[in-house]
Write a structure and sequence with these properties.
Number of helices: 6
Number of domains: 1
Helix content: over 70%
Distance between the termini: 29 Å
Shape: extended
Order of helices and strands: HHHHHH
Radius of gyration: 21 Å
Structural class: mainly alpha
Number of strands: 0
Length: 168
């Protein structure tokens, strides 16, 4: 399983534009499905719970998901802007907290913050072109690292089992 996921990550990184668009289609579809479930849930609790909150939240999810599915390019730009904003804000927060607290190993967190700030700024500065590659790279790296971590975990378990059998 880990090997297959790792290979999928390599394929995703080899086709970052396709990965970006597939991610947007998946995200829009999940918004629609989640919104439908939320509306169904609203009607199931209409007498005992916050009916209107769930109904309106579900409608909003369906509408946004449908818009993303109808205009995947615009959805991709919007998600890329959110991603750039997240990297920038996360990096700024890391830099400020690590520099002000000066805990053990704070320099690594500060460096991580600088990299995150730079990544957010690069993605934002290259908009809208960065929307074609940024989301695909993030998704591809996540899939690749997930596959590698599954394989590493399996090897650790295998080693522990062999070690235990050798000692018994």
């Amino acid at each position: 399983m880990g090997l297959l996921i790792t290979l999928l990550g390599v394929v995703a990184l080899g086709a970052v534009v396709l990965t970006s668009f597939v991610s947007v289609i998946f995200y829009g579809s999940m918004l629609v499905v989640g919104g439908v479930f939320e509306m169904v849930h609203a009607f199931r609790i209409r007498r005992t719970g916050p009916f209107l909150m769930f109904l309106l939240g579900g409608i909003l999810s369906v509408v946004v998901g449908a818009l993303v599915l109808m205009r995947p390019g615009a959805g991709l730009v919007a998600l890329t802007l959110l991603l750039a904003g997240y990297f920038f804000a996360s990096g700024l927060f890391r830099c400020i907290t690590s520099a002000s607290d000066r805990y053990s190993g704070w320099g690594w967190d500060f460096a991580y913050g600088i990299v995150s700030l730079a990544l957010g700024a690069i993605i934002f500065a290259q908009m809208p072109a960065s929307s074609l590659w940024a989301l695909g790279i993030v998704v591809g790296v996540e899939i690749l690292s997930r596959g590698i971590s599954i394989m590493a975990g399996a090897l650790m378990i295998r080693s522990a089992v062999h070690h235990r059998h050798a000692n018994v």
